[in-house]
Write a structure and sequence with these properties.
The chain has one domain. The longest helix is centred in the C-terminal third of the chain and has 48 residues. The protein is mainly alpha-helical and 171 residues long. It starts with a helix and ends with a helix. Keywords: Membrane, Transmembrane, Transmembrane helix. This is Membrane protein. Pfam families: Anthrone_oxy (PF08592). InterPro entries: Anthrone_oxy.
């Protein structure tokens, strides 16, 4: 029974990681570049608006729901550890938790907090915006790669369990 639960949760975690990676990929590949092309006051105002509206049930469910699945799967993968894919599940979970949630809290959120209090038209806001674009985007690249790699590792774990189950049934 626990093995079926692990399979279902691993599948959902893989999907969640893919969704989160896609969101961050959009920011890394074109959203931040687009915001950097408009006047700083407008870019700041747009990003301030994004940072408020991103706090919504859909994003929070994908972002933190996937984190909760990763925490649960990390514990469940140890019982029994010898199951195929257990190490992949733990690696995928830790990568998501550290590379996505950890980086967000340690790097991106503090930058968002600085930007939140900036007055878009103020002279010092221009320098902050330049720094913000550079640093936030760099850390967002990490946040893009981490859940994408986690999705791959979760998928590999599912495949390894599937192959092992079919080999045992045919063997």
């Amino acid at each position: 029974m626990i093995q079926q639960i692990i399979l279902v949760l691993t599948f959902i975690a893989a999907i969640g990681c893919g969704v989160v990676a896609g969101i961050f990929f959009a920011f890394s590949s074109f959203v931040m570049a687009a915001l950097g092309r408009i006047p700083p006051a407008q870019g700041i105002a747009a990003m301030q608006s994004i940072n408020v509206t991103v706090i919504n049930p859909g994003f929070m469910l994908a972002f933190f729901g996937t984190a909760l699945l990763c925490l649960a799967l990390t514990g469940m993968a140890f019982f029994p550890w010898e199951q195929p894919g257990s190490a992949l599940i733990v690696a995928a979970s830790l990568l998501y938790l550290l590379g996505c949630i950890g980086v967000t809290m340690a790097r991106n959120v503090p930058l968002n907090d600085l930007l939140a209090v900036a007055q878009p038209g103020a002279p010092e806001a221009h320098a902050l915006w330049s720094r913000y674009l550079r640093e936030w985007t760099l850390w967002n690249h990490v946040r893009t790669v981490a859940p994408a790699a986690s999705a791959v590792l979760f998928t590999m774990a599912l495949l390894s369990r599937y192959v092992a189950r079919h080999l045992a049934a045919s063997g």
